[in-house]
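Hi there,

I know you've been waiting on this one. I reran it after we fixed the sequence typo, so this is the corrected version. Both the input and the resulting structure follow.
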Amino acid sequence: MIKKIEEAHNYIQSKISIKPDYGVILGTGLGSLAKEVEVKEIINYEDIPNFPVSTVESHKGKLIFGRLAGKHVVVMQGRFHYYEGYTMKEVTFPVRVMKLLGIKKLFVSNAAGGLDKRYEISDLMIIKDHINLMPENPLTGKNLDKFGGRFPDMSEPYDAQLIRQATAIAQEHGIRVHEGVYAAVTGPNLETRAEYKYLRIIGADAVGMSTVPEVIVARHMEMPCFALSVITDLCIPETLKKVTVEEVIAAAMKAEPGMTKIIKELVGRQ
């Protein structure tokens, strides 16, 4: 695995002219933050040795290098999911590569279903903690000692200072934002009424199919993380309605300006 990570890193390093300080992973329907980047280089995932390739239509599959709010960044325009058939090590492979490229902090966005009755479609939720319900952990198997210890601490998976800064940015711009707990499930199907009820009982405020594996691996490498969910559908068992992928993407796109402003300014303040 380390050899594969190094091969991908070496290829990317040979193609770029800047050293990124921060990494950004863009989720479903949230690709337009890339438009805010002063682009230096773009690399297609399919050209990178050992790199997975996005199979979800709304994930473009490009690694973008440039400046965002005056800071050097690498942006993943499209991520990988366990439900696509990848192992967790493959899902999180890019985070390992970004670490070798030099990133110091990781910023993640996703689309999620809202479990809290106070949430509305296209609201934003800063993730303050998570519940991992996925069947495989990206750290299972032989530990990659080069990157971190066998039993990484997870008492603060999401950086408290970054959360405070993001909350302040949202307040400054009048952006409606919540703080909550994100539950990660396998997918790709949405959940049943009973499952939504269960998720609420165990303390989840939103549910999605990504983010947690990447954060686990980033924390294994002692990298501070910030994650932001866009609430794209409401998952209240008592009032549950059918939802389409098109509706999810539309809700994410409506929330994009606020999400983009928060992440852009947050990166700029580092």
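Quick highlight: Residues 245-268 form the longest helix (24 residues).

Best,
R. S.
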